[in-house]
Amino acid sequence: MDLVWFGQKEGAEELFPATVPGNIQKDYAAFKSWGDIHYADNCEKYLEIEDEVWFYHTSFDGTRATDERVFFVTKGIDYEYDIILNGCVICHHEGLYTPVEIDITDRVKDGTNTLSVKIYRHPKREGAPVSRTQADNCVKPPVGYGWDWHPRVIPSGIWNDTSIEFRKADYITRLNVTYSLAEDFSRGELFFDFTCNGAYNIRVFAPDGALVYEGAERRVSVENPLLWWCNGQGKQNLYSWEVTTASDRKQGKTGFRRVELVMESIHWAEPHGFPKSRSNPPTTLLLNGRKIFAKGSNIVSPEIFPGTSDVDTYLPLVRLAKEANMNIFRMWGGSGIQKDVFFELCDEYGIMVWQEFPLACNDYKNDPHYLEILEQEAVCIVRNLRQHCSVVIWCGGNELFNGWSKMTDQSHALRLLNKICYEQDPDTPFLSTSPLAGMGHGCYLFSFNGQEVYQMFNNSHYTAYTEFGVPSLPSVDYLKTFIPADQLFPPRQESTWKTHHGFDSWCYWDTWVCLDIIEGYFGKVSSLEDLVRYSNWLQCEGYKAIFEEARRQKPYCAMAINWCYNEPWKTAANNSLLCYPALPKPAYYAVKNSLKNVVPSARLNRFSYKSGDVFSAELWLLNDGDECIEQDEIRVSVEIGGNIVEILNWQIDFCAENTNKRGHIIQYILPRIQGVECFRLVLESKKYGVNSYDLHYVYKANAPVPKIPVLNM
Amino acid sequence: MDLVWFGQKEGAEELFPATVPGNIQKDYAAFKSWGDIHYADNCEKYLEIEDEVWFYHTSFDGTRATDERVFFVTKGIDYEYDIILNGCVICHHEGLYTPVEIDITDRVKDGTNTLSVKIYRHPKREGAPVSRTQADNCVKPPVGYGWDWHPRVIPSGIWNDTSIEFRKADYITRLNVTYSLAEDFSRGELFFDFTCNGAYNIRVFAPDGALVYEGAERRVSVENPLLWWCNGQGKQNLYSWEVTTASDRKQGKTGFRRVELVMESIHWAEPHGFPKSRSNPPTTLLLNGRKIFAKGSNIVSPEIFPGTSDVDTYLPLVRLAKEANMNIFRMWGGSGIQKDVFFELCDEYGIMVWQEFPLACNDYKNDPHYLEILEQEAVCIVRNLRQHCSVVIWCGGNELFNGWSKMTDQSHALRLLNKICYEQDPDTPFLSTSPLAGMGHGCYLFSFNGQEVYQMFNNSHYTAYTEFGVPSLPSVDYLKTFIPADQLFPPRQESTWKTHHGFDSWCYWDTWVCLDIIEGYFGKVSSLEDLVRYSNWLQCEGYKAIFEEARRQKPYCAMAINWCYNEPWKTAANNSLLCYPALPKPAYYAVKNSLKNVVPSARLNRFSYKSGDVFSAELWLLNDGDECIEQDEIRVSVEIGGNIVEILNWQIDFCAENTNKRGHIIQYILPRIQGVECFRLVLESKKYGVNSYDLHYVYKANAPVPKIPVLNM
User: Fold this and answer.
1) Do A406 and B268 count as a contact with CB atoms less than 8 A apart?
2) What is the mean pLDDT of chain B?
3) Are A448 and B278 an interchain contact pair (Cβ–Cβ within 8 Å)?
4) Among B595, B625, B648, which residue terminates a domain?
């Protein structure tokens, strides 16, 4: 039943239109004409309504047929709330991920009924500073409390589908479809678990639409099922099913797949010597028995107001990930859980999901009330999402075992989540947090403590890089849409630049604009255009260097997942590959190329070179695909100042599937050319296309060009 | 009811006397007069009965009063078995830790009844090599399948209390006593959970015997309870309780304590730099809010036939641990779970227990049947032992995350154990295995790969040393009790020496006799007496060096637990501090001194010195106690060739509780004295007694004695 909702601030008379699903703060802001939240400092207006109590009101005609029952149904309301029917509280609830279904038949009268939802004040731990710490004893996503790329705007309200339903007796409810898969993949079994008082019919269709089964058995065998593969490894085979009764119909899709996290033999060889610690935990994904190098990005809530997210929000994000040759999203815990349609899209596009629970960078204590709500919410989350073949890893949350969070393996919240995942979805791996031992987070800058990404990662030895970032600014045109013209250039620390995370965001004042790093390479920057150009140059090369180096470290390393993919609002600078809402930055295209299953790659030492320097690079052919490579040739050249110098032809006879090949080291003496600030290394595979690197060139009039020849080793 | 049991080998007519509780193989061997299992190669005779099926038989008078019911009751039978009453199988069971109670009233007849127990063949995974690997899909302790200090002798049978009971209606059963403790320790609450059809009375007594409560409330408050402390930190306060009915009485003891594993701030500072991994898991025990340096030993099953263990077996072991200033046993998983009385003694003597589940050095796979039995057994283990205040850590098992085991954090068995412990005993810490990241196991030799224990441990940086060992031989007299006279000297690789783990036991041929290491220091050894003396010298100094170094590394390091404490049979050489059954080696006394709460200590660089060398040592005062030290003085001297040289008086004004104090570095030029092979460093505290080190001295006629003075820095 379509309901027309109005919002109300507690203590105020006025009603305003409310969108359901949505968020009440956004509705109120629209009603008050606060303007675009993305513009200038508009987001700060939301602080004044942060501690409000809100109401939703609607009415409906309760007249029903004699064989009908009436239900209040919601997929989730954020965060603590009452359901009030005709003036009576019929439900009090805490937690935004628990679906609630209430049979209200005996309370509903013929004709007009009133329904209200009271949304309590946001949870904030008493005594905590005004930061994410306030969210350390609730299951609300902490990101709204403020992050280095998210303004402090805390949403609440009816964020997910909510309605009044008139149901016949044969209504289908509590439907949960799971499956098992034979050890040798020769047989799948679907289990239809649901409640229905009446005759029903189940139909199952193969990925090509052919009918596989029709009948009333709740256990359906599928012989030799077509397996679901992630992007780049095969088809995203999905079996459709529907359950129908005379009055109702439910449908969905299931992908058969098996997922494990396994060790490589090289991991068991560590640690060396005595006293001896444990070997690192496994990070290699085994999908249907095949090792997969996990490459992708950390996705965050795509909207400040998650209630407004729908298929149009998620589709471009998932589609762009597939197009960028990614196969995994780490769904970062601070952002909470996305709507079902996000996971349906990931199933369909082959993007595996590492799904975290809504814990991030806090010490969630052993508080009985918190643990009770966490258990309730986590059980609902797992039972709902385990049906999606794309969900391949459960994770307790973000960076919980580090000094800024201070949780440990003994924290009850994490032991509880491990228990719930084991009970509800034992065959999907569970990680307590990220990073674990052997896994690396950071750095988040092109250079840090005197090391560029090249030195930092070439010398790293990790089983998985699950966060790493290089920031950039969006385009000049984009900046103009939210930074007032008089603040555009030069960027100042106390301005909209700071509100939008250009300054004082992480670690030190210059994040994320990174003027210091940019001017360190390029000298004083004199225009916004140059600033944007340099910033994106560094981001492109930085991300290329890290993603490709992580791939080169396979099989010791099994994952490269950058921080971050997207952003929920317009930032002035960010590690993201996409600007809000889903606008690719140049680095998106650079990463897309670096993540092709087969790509020639160069291990570089540094970014900046003077004329006369020996430019050196180690050649690689990276292969994450399931096919071996035969008879390829890689032509290596350097383009500088309009000249193209052919360096080498690397002949490759054979490179096994999912295996990299290490090649020659080239050394090239950079010539003296004036008026040039960049030179390009180009690797062109005969079969697999081009990969290139734009590197910084500094002309020094007096630099001697050494008398050593070009070496092809 | 006392039952007289007989044993029978399947397929054989003959019956033999059987001891219950006990182990059937031991009974059979006694019947066959196989002789002392500890002597020579007698243990090998047991191989011929390894795959037998066994029966126990008894009979009893089933005549009962009309208000009585009859029960078969066992605390545990090893491993898979049938209970057969009057020829009918009334129970089939797998698992030795699940108590079984069967109401047999309706099957028992007046007069004579026969009762048999069929013990199935030992579980062995098909296709596994003849080693512990055969036990990788069962819950039987793997140690009996053979270890580097345990012969291959696999026990089974009625290993724990088993009887027929005639019960009145008011019999007390399923009694489980747990407690809660207020945050500020101001109040304890005992919860009596039991079944009883009839009037009952509960009485609770304070540690001094005073009656605290009497009545029928199952929830009993104790105001300001006297807390239980581990050895060295306070009293082992235990509250006694009893539940009585007209016909029955159950009693026990409860110690109120809170235990946590916490981080030190120094741990949060790691890891440094980017990419950044997690901080190590916590290893600092917090007992009743007080940090405790855990010092103790790895205890193993004290008998090859665990069914024969009783209070007389355990008492000397626990008492000696207390006397050696230990406060913790790591109850090693490979040995399985000990009988209740062991834990009662640990409660009483203040020895904390790190209790492992019976998994060790195997890859226990995700096999549904195995997991089902593991769950059943683990739930019983935890529900039984959580009542003991001494049990402060649960652990999945031994060395499971290393290359020789190959389990990971994803292994279902370990996720299941974490879940069970969280459900049954959430406030007791759970570790998946030992070692975890930051914790060290090994080495097990005085020197390895060119490093002595001094260099190995002085340069180590671990949060806990949970296994480390130095082997020694037992005394000559002791060796003579089990090594035939003609094999005594020289020890040969193919002889009783090998059967008793003198050779080919670990890593290389020379373990655990370590002739190579001994002769490397002392030259060719010409008598058994010398071999024993040198071996024990190295063990004493090796253990002193490691235990004291681990203590010096506090607070970064929080545990020092050597491998191992005891042994279940007479070994020719072993890392143990006690010879079977509980006979202290010299190293026991050395360790006892090193583990005093307050002890002066010297950090040494190496074991062996030539005349003319500068002997150097860094002085420390180690304090694990809860009291600060004021106005102490430590006199340092060197004794060599009958001369005593006073080196230094170290004046100590103040040293805080549970804190070490670092002192001077002494440097002393060793004189030229002939006919001496040892010199002694003596540290004598005015208040806390003596600590001394016996070091190896080599006279070199031509060694120049350098002209540098003794330095007191």
Assistant:
1) yes
2) 97
3) no
4) B595
Which of A167, A196, A216 is at the close of a domain?
A167
- Considering only CB atoms, A437 lies closest to which of B426, B437, B442, namely B437
Say if residue A120's pLDDT is above 90.
Answer: yes
B460/B564 same-domain check: yes
**Chain B residues within an 8 Å CB radius of A276:** 402, 435, 440-442
Give the tens place of pLDDT for each residue, A506-555: 988 899 999 999 999 999 999 999 999 999 999 999 999 999 999 999 99
Q: What are the distances in angstroms from CA B160 to CA B81, B163, B309?
A: 14, 10, 9
For residues A354, A358, A360 and A362, what is the CA-based torsion angle, rounded to 10 degrees? -150
Q: Which residues of A485-511 are buried (b: 16+ CB within 10 A; e: fewer)?
A: eebebebeeebbbbbbbbbbbbeeebb
Q: For an interface test with A, which of B410, B508, B511 has the most A Cβ atoms less than 10 Å from its Cβ? A: B410
The per-residue pLDDT for A245 is: 97
> Smallest CA–CA separation between A449 and chain B, in Å?
9
A276, A437, A442: residue with CB nearest B274? A442
Per CB-CB distance under 8 Å, the chain B contacts of A461 are: none
Band of the pLDDT at A713, cuts 50, 70, 90? very low
A180, A366, A408, best to mutate vs chain B, most B CBs in 10 Å: A408
The total number of structural domains in chain B stands at 4
Using the beta-carbon criterion (under 8 Å), do A277 and B409 form an inter-chain contact? no
Residue A197 pLDDT class (50, 70, 90 cuts): very high
Q: Taking CB atoms and an 8 Å limit, are B274 and A416 in contact across chains?
A: no
Nearest by CB to residue A419, choosing from B277, B281, B422, is: B422
Is B437 in contact with B466 (CB distance < 8 Å)? Answer: no
Q: Is B433 in contact with A275 (Cβ distance < 8 A)?
A: no
Query: CB within 8 A of A564, min separation 6: which ones?
Result: A149, A297, A298, A299, A300, A332, A469, A574, A575, A576, A577
**Whether the predicted model's global pTM rises above the 0.95 cut:** yes
Query: The domain containing residue B217 runs over which residues?
Result: 173-259
* Residue B106 included in any domain: yes
A-chain CB neighbours of B280 within 8 Å are 437
Could you tell me if A178 and A116 lie in one domain? no
The CATH number for A694's domain is 2.60.40.10
Distances, alpha carbon B461 to alpha carbons A345, B89, B276, B295, in Å: 48, 57, 18, 17
Q: What is the pLDDT of residues A655-694, one digit of tens each?
A: 999 999 999 999 999 999 999 999 999 999 999 999 999 9
List, for residues B12-33, the tens digit of each pLDDT value: 999 999 999 999 999 999 999 9
Cβ–Cβ of A415/B433 closer than 8 Å? no
- In contact, B690 and B684? CB cutoff 8 Å: yes
Q: What is the pLDDT of residues B385-434, one digit of tens each?
A: 999 999 999 999 999 999 999 999 999 999 999 999 999 999 999 999 99
Closest listed residue to residue B351, CA positions, set B379, B384, B314, B380: B314
Least confident of A414-423, A639-648, B574-583: A639-648
Write down the pLDDT at residue A507. 85
A contacts of B462 (beta carbons < 8 Å)? 275, 277
Indicate yes or no: CB of B457 within 8 angstroms of CB of A275.
yes
Mean pLDDT of A254-262: 98
Are B279 and A402 within 8 A, CB to CB? yes
